[in-house]
Design brief:
It is a single chain. The protein is of the alpha+beta class. The chain has one domain. The chain is 37% helix and 32% strand. The chain has three helices and five strands. Strands 1-2-3-4-5 form a five-stranded mixed beta sheet. Helix 1 crosses helix 2. It is globular.
């Protein structure tokens, strides 16, 4: 699967989880259930994945933890907030850039409708 096909599965799974649980729970609850749902769909899922970065020619181990990495291509940043901010978008873009991943999805499970809580962020995604 390429990054775009993975993102379609993630969006579908996120909507299913949001419909089942509703908004307002802790991010950790949505993360656990979403990881289970994605794994059930046959995707490779790593939750709280430590990511190393290269800074000034030196590897910095476990510089940050990605909420979820799917098939080693797509980073999912989960939120459960009333409204997302520009900082959330910047955070995910920086994660993509530092990990050299092509696509990320910012998923806000705090939104009334999941479709309103999904933001796609790209980093050198091939056409």
């Amino acid at each position: 699967m390429d990054a775009n096909e993975i993102s379609k599965e993630v969006v579908d799974a996120s909507v299913k989880v949001h419909q089942a649980l509703g908004p307002g729970l802790l991010e950790s609850v949505y993360e656990a259930v979403l990881c289970k749902e994605l794994s059930t769909r046959g995707l490779s899922v790593k939750c709280q994945e430590p990511v190393s970065i290269n800074y000034d020619g030196e590897v910095i181990g476990e510089a940050f933890r990605a909420d979820v990495v799917v098939n080693d291509l797509v980073i999912l940043e989960l939120k459960s907030v009333e409204q997302m901010s520009k900082l959330h978008h910047k955070q995910l873009f920086t994660y993509l850039k530092l990990s050299n991943k092509p696509l990320g999805l910012l998923l806000n499970f705090g939104a009334s409708l999941m479709k309103d809580g999904i933001v796609r962020v790209v980093n050198n995604l091939p056409e």
